[in-house]
């Protein structure tokens, strides 16, 4: 039966690819999601494993590859995976969040059919439901350039993925219960490198050679600072964009963000600390891994190097220095700077302010006073089947209302090929991190205080970094230009997972009136249906 199922799936996928990209290679993955005992901080926990692994298997791909990922859910609860930074061109059906997909029921499977269309860079996948992310289930995604596309640096000797982030000793169900009770999460218990605590991981390198490190912050609540004892880091990529090649001694990586750095092994042959520490917290958590020279003649000496702790201006200045390499090719041979984002007229300004209201006596989080609550049916399915009463367009305002918080399944309407100015405003005293699914945006400005139209005078309209996740400092703002070039239902969310779970998110419906595969793929034949969409038909093969 299993071989028959795979044969039928191959037929369906080849049919789809024949319409969309028959020339592009495809890669097959078969993943089993299960519980398992893990001990990342020395305490037994219930982890979420993929094929018995924590973290899960890495995905190594090339621009335009098709990824066919069959997920079998062996948990006793529904499950979804989402793909942080993968744009899902014309295909929000595969985004893997509850607003677009029905959860995979226990004992059943679902096959994601993704294409990493016109993308390069370093990303990660993660479980998107409840607090599953606190139990693992995440892994790295690498998208390499096609062989004929120039890369603005020589091929490194080694290429390492580092998934770093804060971690709690409590199981994910306990953390969820804390939030459901209207309380804040406790302070994290530690930091993990690729699922291991301090000194649990060693990276072996060759003296005199240059190695690439792809670093993602997969944590739940805190930004981290990353550094390597005695070594400089040359930043070369941020979430799929080649950057100006600035050198840093340490790098702030906010929740949900990914970077690539090149490190030349130019020190004496011994072992060195790789360090991650929390930012803007008290106390400061620190964890280390080992950089081991293959010709090492000595062990690590001295304490781990210190880094910045609560300094906001330091982080802000570093963030402003991360800019786009205009002459480098991206996923296509034309230079990244050939798209002059600063010369395009914006069609609409969206101001989004986060807040932490009490609603019905419980702590919630909100955007423009709206605390998001999931509907009984995924929004994308309700939109496709025209099911009334699931959500209303315009249920979140374009600007802060200043009113008290309230519940709503918030969906903002937007037109395909519009060009948005988005301003994230943070009146709170904690740093925020925001992610936008399905799109990249250009960071044109960030500063302290209140944003106003006069703030546009200092926008960077030439080489602002393009990415999909951005920080907003306390009592500050961050402004973006974003082309709405991808039809679908897209999640805009806090990357602080407690805030996201308690309502700091909404959906952007990018709409085209043209019913054409040119703008959006049709609903997959194998789409899971649930809620008020149960029993309906997808489409004939």
From TrEMBL:
<protein>
    <submittedName>
        <fullName>L-ascorbate oxidase -like protein</fullName>
    </submittedName>
</protein>
<keyword id="KW-0325">Glycoprotein</keyword>
<dbReference type="InterPro" id="IPR045087">
    <property type="entry name" value="Cu-oxidase_fam"/>
</dbReference>
<comment type="similarity">
    <text>Belongs to the multicopper oxidase family.</text>
</comment>
<feature type="domain" description="Plastocyanin-like">
    <location>
        <begin position="33"/>
        <end position="146"/>
    </location>
</feature>
<dbReference type="Pfam" id="PF07732">
    <property type="entry name" value="Cu-oxidase_3"/>
</dbReference>
<dbReference type="GO" id="GO:0005507">
    <property type="term" value="F:copper ion binding"/>
</dbReference>
<dbReference type="InterPro" id="IPR011706">
    <property type="entry name" value="Cu-oxidase_C"/>
</dbReference>
<dbReference type="InterPro" id="IPR001117">
    <property type="entry name" value="Cu-oxidase_2nd"/>
</dbReference>
<dbReference type="InterPro" id="IPR034273">
    <property type="entry name" value="CuRO_1_AAO-like"/>
</dbReference>
<feature type="signal peptide">
    <location>
        <begin position="1"/>
        <end position="22"/>
    </location>
</feature>
<keyword id="KW-0732">Signal</keyword>
<dbReference type="Pfam" id="PF00394">
    <property type="entry name" value="Cu-oxidase"/>
</dbReference>
<feature type="domain" description="Plastocyanin-like">
    <location>
        <begin position="159"/>
        <end position="296"/>
    </location>
</feature>
<dbReference type="Pfam" id="PF07731">
    <property type="entry name" value="Cu-oxidase_2"/>
</dbReference>
<feature type="domain" description="Plastocyanin-like">
    <location>
        <begin position="376"/>
        <end position="513"/>
    </location>
</feature>
<dbReference type="GO" id="GO:0016491">
    <property type="term" value="F:oxidoreductase activity"/>
</dbReference>
<dbReference type="InterPro" id="IPR008972">
    <property type="entry name" value="Cupredoxin"/>
</dbReference>
<dbReference type="InterPro" id="IPR011707">
    <property type="entry name" value="Cu-oxidase-like_N"/>
</dbReference>
